[in-house]
Write a structure and sequence with these properties.
It holds the Pfam family TraX. It is built from ten helices and two strands. The chain is mainly alpha-helical. The chain has one domain.
């Protein structure tokens, strides 16, 4: 990870989260979110109103899903960091595409409980398109019209692909990359873009607590654990759902 940090909304003494801790936080938020989507959506007590805000009933299911909104922005930030600091960008992109393909079957069972679900693809495809956008922006740095053409082409693919978070997620990744050296602007612009899903904006609190250090994740085994976490945890949750709720 980088030794030089961009200015944060927090003083240096509050920048205490390593890249490894951010990954862990994102995985926990994602697990909470998917537990709600896969299991609690079939558990009637979780769908019972606990209290009301402005006349709107708030359920445990809704609370869980709202907490999970923080996962995607953190993962986007980490994808930018990984792209900037990886020793092998081709391998980095290959891994994103590989795990997009591996994750597709668990993803299909999550939504349709079948091997094939064409309506929507998993979030690794969105992250991979973001990676391609970073490559294009860097490769065509001195040719702005090619940058624009590449981004528009990838945006079109994201719309056709219907990957998780869709074209909004793709544009968010591009914004995170373009504002990579300005965490304050990144938080402001990113939050404005995520206004349609405003709970996700809280992710910028942890992002601005990042200290630029790699942390405890070292070696291939630990690295691939976080790649595998996505398809594996979805598979486990789908099995639990099918055994106890379907």
């Amino acid at each position: 990870m980088s030794d030089k940090l961009s200015p944060s909304i927090f003083p240096a003494r509050f920048q205490i989260l390593s890249g490894s801790m951010l990954k862990l936080l994102a995985c926990i938020a994602m697990l909470i979110d998917h537990t709600g989507a896969i299991i609690l959506s079939h558990y009637p007590p979780a769908l019972t109103e606990l209290f009301y805000i402005n006349g709107k009933g708030i359920t445990f299911y809704r609370i869980v899903r709202d907490i999970g909104r923080c996962a995607f922005p953190i993962f986007c930030f980490l994808i930018v960091e990984g792209f900037l600091h990886t020793h092998d960008r081709r391998k980095y992109g290959r891994n994103l595409l590989l795990f997009a393909l591996i994750s597709e079957i668990p993803w299909n069972f999550m939504f349709a409980n079948t091997w094939h679900y064409a309506d929507k693809q998993n979030v690794f495809f969105t992250l991979f398109l973001g990676y391609l956008a970073f490559c294009a922006l860097e490769y065509f740095w001195e040719t702005p019209w090619m940058q624009l053409f590449s981004l528009l082409a990838l945006l079109g693919i994201s719309i056709l692909l219907h990957a998780d978070y869709g074209w909004r997620g793709f544009i968010f990744l591009v914004l995170m990359y373009l504002l990579r050296n300005e965490k304050v602007s990144q938080a402001i612009v990113g939050s404005c873009w995520l206004s349609y899903e405003w709970k996700a904006c809280f992710a910028f609190i942890s992002i601005n607590m990042y200290n630029g250090k790699r942390g405890f994740i070292r070696g291939k085994a630990a690295k691939y654990f976080f790649y595998l976490f996505y398809p594996v945890h979805i598979t486990i949750l789908v099995i639990i759902r099918n055994l106890f709720f379907l």
